[in-house]
Amino acid sequence: TRTVTEFDRVTDSVCPFCGVGCQTKVYTKDNKIVLVDGRDGPANENRLCVKGRFGYDYAMSKERLTKPLIRREDAPKRGDADMRFMDPLDIFREATWEEAMERAAGGLVSIRDTHGGGALAGFGSAKGSNEEAYLFQKFIRQGFGTNNVDHCTRLCHASSVAALLEGVGSGAVSAPFMDALQSDCVIVIGARPATNHPVAATYLKQAAKRGTKLIVMDPRGQDLMRHASHPLRFKAGTDVALLNAMLHVIIEEKLYDAQYIQANVDGFEALKAKVADFPPESMAEVCGIEAETIRDVARTYATAERSIIFWGMGVSQHTHGTDNSRCLIALALITGHVGRPGTGLHPLRGQNNVQGASDAGLIPMMYPDYRPVETPDIRAEMEDFWGRPLDPKKGLTVVEIIDAIHEGEIRGMYIMGENPAMSDPDQIHARAALAKLEHLVVQDIFLTETAWHADVVLPASAHAEKLGTYSNTNRQVQIGRPALDMPGEARQDWELIVELANRSGLDWSYDGVADVYEEMRQVMPSLDYIPWERLEASESVTYPSKPDGEEQWVVFDDRFPTADGRGRIVPADLRAPDEVPDDEFPMILTTGRLLEHWHTGAMTRRAEVLDAIEPEGIAAMNPREIARQGLKEGSTVSVETRRGTIEAVLRADREVADGMIFVPFCFNESPANRLTNPMLDPYGKIPEFKFCAARISAASMR
Ligand code: SF4
Hints:
globular, binds iron/sulfur cluster
C-alpha cells in the first residue's frame, strides 16, 4: 500500500476500467485526484492493476468537454476526414444548454414525428452506471417507440450470452473468478486475463501455485501460460475442432456424469452423435494440438472433482462464436462441473459495467432482466409499467444499425459514451454511416472520433464525478461515488437523459440516482432483496440474493433458470472463419487490447502514465515471421485487408503465432477496426474481430 500525505478528501469507489470491479480509495486535493489505492473488496482484496492505480488522470484532462457544442453551418463535410489535427471550433460553436438541448431533442423528435420511431436508434455505454443504462434504454423505448438500442456488449460477449441463454437460461456467470481457488482444474480459453483482467489473473496464478491444474488455450502465447500445467497454442479459428475432440474423448472414455445428465441435461444423445466425427487423431492436424495432449486435457478437466471454465473474446468474437460457447457449455453440462463451488462457466466481462448494462436492458431484444420484447405478456406488463405502447419487434443491433443508416432506414441517433467510429468493424463503413445521419446527438466527456460527426455534443460526467451502481463480471453490484466536481458546464449523464426525455414529450421525475435504482428494482427480480440502503451499507452485494440476505455466489445449484429447469446441449459443427488467408492476403489478422490501454483509448490515451508506457500504434509479429518477410522491427509498416489500410510501428513479439499479425484496437492513428471483418455470428450478431485475411509491407516501400 502506498501512502500520500497531502489530500483533503478520500472517497470509496470502484475502478472505472475492466469488469473485475476492483474497489478503490480515491484521494483528492483541491478537486484533483492525487492517488488511487485498492480497498478490500471481494473481487480485489486491496489489489489494483496499472490501469486502476495510474489511469485516473484522464478525468482531469485539459481535453474534457466543458460546454455544449453545436455543429457550425459552415463546418467541413462530415466523413472519414482525419479531424484529429483540426481545431474543434472550426467544426463546432459553443452554445448555451438551452439551445443545445432544444436542438438535440428537437432533431430527434422531428425524425420520430416524420418517419416514425424506427428511424431512430441509440447506443448507450457499458462504461456508465446501471441507472444510466436503465434510463437510456427506457428513453429510446418509451420516447421513440423502438427497440433500436444497443451497446458494445454486441462487440464482446453477445455470442457467449446467446449460447448461455439457450443452454442454461442465464447470460451471467455461474460462479465468481475467485472460485478458481477452490477448483482442481481451471480452463482459460480465448482470454488473456493478465492483460485484460489483471487482478482476476492473480487468483488464477495463485490457484496454479496451490496445485490446481491450469489449462490455457490460446493461439497467441501469453503470460498465464508460464503458470499453466497445460499451455495449448492451437490454430486460430479452430476452437470447435479442439473442444469437440475433448467432448469426443470424454464420451468415448465414459468420463461424463451420467447421473447428472439424466437429472439435469437434455441433448446428450445428439451431442454424442455429433462429436463421434471429431476423434482427436483426426482433429490434431486441424487444430495443431497433438491427439494425446487433447486426450490428456479432456481427462484432466472431466475427472477433476471441481473444474471451472473462463473464456473471453478469443472465443466470442468469431462468426462461430456462439458455437464455440456451446461447446464450453456442453463440457460443463456433461461432466456436472456446474452449480458447485469451484465449478462453472465464467465469460470474463470486458468493461466495468457490461454485465450491468445488459442486465438493465441496454440490448435490442430484451427489456431489463432479459425479458424478451417479443413476448406479448411481458410487453404488456412493461407497457403498463412505463405507460406507453412499446415496439412489438426486437430492435437492430450495433452493426445492423450502421448498415440501416446506409440503407436510409435509420436517420437519427443518440449516442452516450460509446465510440462506434473506433469500435465498430469496417471503420470506414461505420464512419460513413455516422456522416450520413440527418441528426446525431453525442453525449460524452471528450470530443471522441464519434463526437466529431455530431450535430450536438453534450458535455457529460466522468466516472470519478458520479454516483451510481456497477455490476462486475462476478454479478457483484457495487457503488461508485463522486470524488471530483465536474469541469465547466458539464452535467450528469442521468440528468441529461431525463431532460432529453422530457423535451421529447415524456414526463419523468426522479429524486436522484437512488430513486432510479429503486424503479429498476421494480422490473428486475434479479435485484430483489438488494435495496439501495443495503448496497450503501455493504459496498458490494452479489445477485441474486435470498430473502434472508444470503448472496448466491454460485448459481444453478438446484436447477437451471430455463422453462423446465434443465440445461440444454446444442452440438456445434466446425465452420471456417468467414475470411481465410489466400494468395492476395496470406496472413491472419487478429486484434485485442494491451495491458495499459482500454478499449478505444478515449480514457487511457489521456492518462499520462499509461500513454507514456504505450504511446503509439503497433502491429506485432513473431520475430521469425518478421525475418521471413524481410521486415525490420521498429519500422513503420502498412497492414492491409480488403476493407482498408493502416500504418503502425512493427513490434517483434514471440507470443504472436507464425502467419499472424496482432493489432491492438485502442490507437486512433493506427485504427485496427479499419481492417476488421464486419461479418456477424448468426446468433449473437457479433463481428469476427479475431480473424480475417491480411497482408503487411514496409510502409516506405509501398
Ligand atoms: Fe481496474 Fe480491472 Fe485493473 Fe481492477 S483489474 S484495477 S478493475 S482495470
